[in-house]
């Protein structure tokens, strides 16, 4: 049931993100090729859409166009966006995606600027956040640079992967992950409820996209060497916390993480030694 709810929430979130892009693309009544290309490029770079097939993406776009055509007032559109994007991070992402589409041809029309102002007010985006997003978009960079991606979520997923290598995540293992998160300064602002949500989201992502897909997301999201060392160290802490030799499956998972992050053997040995 929890997995179904998480999967449903993911679909609602992605539909809302697509709505934001379609609103920006159609604000001036004309969808240019540059705007279409911007939509596809931004979707392709976002982990939220990782694993989405071309057919599914087409359905997302068609459903969004139909849904928006049936919504009479912009206030109603904003209300549905807020309902499907309950946290600020996703609202910020929606605004970023809309901005990327509106500025795809290096300039925004009066109608597009008006739409962005409405989205900014409706989604509670600050002027500082707007300026940061516009700067990143105009520079052609990834939205990750403006959003301050929650690397904590990816770190938690690495820990989950290390725990489920043998096929199942026991409740005791989930409790151990939550305890490890609570004891690490990098998760100081993450409460127990959020930690368990991260664990559930990680399991849903693994089920929907498979291990290769999730490893790709982790490699993209944890792009610096420092982040990758930290991620592997967390995985090692989870494995070593059991107090017994890791199973063959767990050892293989650690090998995959090492290869994915491009870590040297001595760095891996140091991570284990420091647990």
Please provide a written account of the structure:
With 275 residues, the protein is mainly α. The protein is 75% helix and 0% strand. The chain contains 14 helices and no strands. It has helices at 2-26, 33-45, 54-69, 74-84, 88-102, 110-123, 127-139, 144-147, 151-163, 171-182, 192-221, 225-240, 248-261, 265-273. The two termini are 35 Å apart.
Number of helices: 14
Can you give the helix content as a percent range?
A: over 70%
Instruction: Please write the string of helix (H) and strand (E) elements.
Output: HHHHHHHHHHHHHH
Net shape: elongated
Name the average pLDDT: 86
**Unreliable spans:** none
Give the CA-CA distance, first to last residue.
35 Å
Which percent range describes the beta-strand content? under 5%
Helix-strand makeup class: mainly alpha
Number of strands: 0
- Major sheet characteristics: none
Cα-atom radius of gyration: 20 Å
What topology emerges from the helices and strands here?
Blueprint: H1 2-26, H2 33-45, H3 54-69, H4 74-84, H5 88-102, H6 110-123, H7 127-139, H8 144-147, H9 151-163, H10 171-182, H11 192-221, H12 225-240, H13 248-261, H14 265-273
Brief digest:
It contains 14 helices and no strands.
Notable traits:
275 residues, 75% helix, mainly alpha
